[in-house]
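Follow-up to my post from last week.
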Amino acid sequence: MNGAPGPAADRALADAFRADWGRVVANLIAVTGDWDLAEDSAQHAFAKALSTWRRDGVPRSPQAWLTTTARNHAIDVIRHDRVAAAKLPALVPEPAETDDSGIADERLRLIFTCCHPAIALESQIALALRTLCGLSVAEVARAFLVGEAAMAKRLVRAKQKIAIARIPYRVPPAHLLPHRIIGVRAVLYLLFNEGYAATAGPDLLRPDLCDQAIELTRMVCGLMPDPESWGLLALLELTHARSAARIGPDGELIPLEEQDRTRWNADLIAAGLSHVETALRRERVGPYQVQALIAATHAMAPSAAETDWARIVRLYDELIAATPTPTVLLNRAVAVGMRDGPQAGLDALGSTGHPQGSAHPLASAVRADLLRRLGDFAAAATAYDDAIAHATNDAERRYLQKRRASVITS
Amino acid sequence: MRYLLLISADEEEAEAVTSDAGMKAFGEWLDDLERRGVLQVHAGLHPSANATTVRVRDGQVLLTDGPYAEGREQVGGLALIECADLDDAIDIAARHPATAIGQVEIRPVRES
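User reply:
Got it. Predicted complex:
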């Protein structure tokens, strides 16, 4: 044991939760085969860590401590449950070295199992996010823009099907990979997003989730090197390169145009640009590659003003043809605003302000920013109020409040 | 783990496309499962026009001429298989020749 008890222990626990929750749960599922028990046991272990680490200090390997504690809890529960006691012989840790695919990572097994094509695509992704990142049902529901009760039901049904129909817990053999890869990529993309713009909480960034998403995407590229996987890897690297420059000294968000570009991570940009090239060489351009090209255009621009916005709008048009999601429509409006001025941006937003019948959580923030540039400060202030009410993240809220204050005093 | 495979198709179409080659493929499917000891029960069914549906309401036995659900798609056969997991069951189901015109529904069997 090392480290000072108290605040240090609390900080270590918060770090462990972000970095290790997915691994602990994935390991417990591998050992017990019971998804609910795995989650309950992981929760128990983290709760126990809170008091134990404060008293005794932080263990040398928090992840090992948490896994062992969770595993012991699972064994206790199973022993006390006469029905489940029959499962005890199965409680032998599998030799988790490599499986058919040659990839040994519990988190990948978890993702690939969730992404079994016998489960509906949305449920695959929701279940993977919930289990892997420890997001609450409310947070997952928000990510999918659906109600909490509906999401809870969907998650329960997916877990039941995995157990009852016996969907194997593994990275599948090569010939089954193509059926899983779409869901797997979507999970990695959203996992990254959750790290890049956390749904809730004090911090905007959960960089460990971004790192995990990149690490896992790299493994997926090794497993199945197809253009969209390379495109996704490039997109994540190029986006993550901007992470450090995105947060100001007070923890507030700094928008792309105001970022100090010398703080962008040159290594990640180099890796990302080279992976875009790898992807494009295969000549089958999909949505992740298009997004990677947008990120690459930003990465190569010396400043916001010198960015090739015309190219970015063109790429968004291409993306909209393939996946016309509310977020893509919103981002296109931002790019149009940069290319043709704020009024054009507002016009573009006009048709997308309430895409598909429901207001996008970020639509007001975009509108407010365009109104501010236009000099319509009163309307901007109202839009900022609405945006602040919709913000779920403290860093985002602080940024919006700062902006609102600036238009009020103008 | 046991799964029931419910093999169904458009009955008229199935009748029309059943060929010697199809029967041969089906025979090979059955032989392979039997060789592997996977197949517990298999039955091919007469067309649904020969079905009788039974209900008991208020102590009365009520009979209907035909299947419980009308429609072109009807169950034409079933197989009870024992295999490791859903991936194995999907692999077995996908090699049934009926999947080319109809479908196979895989139902996990409730074990007491």
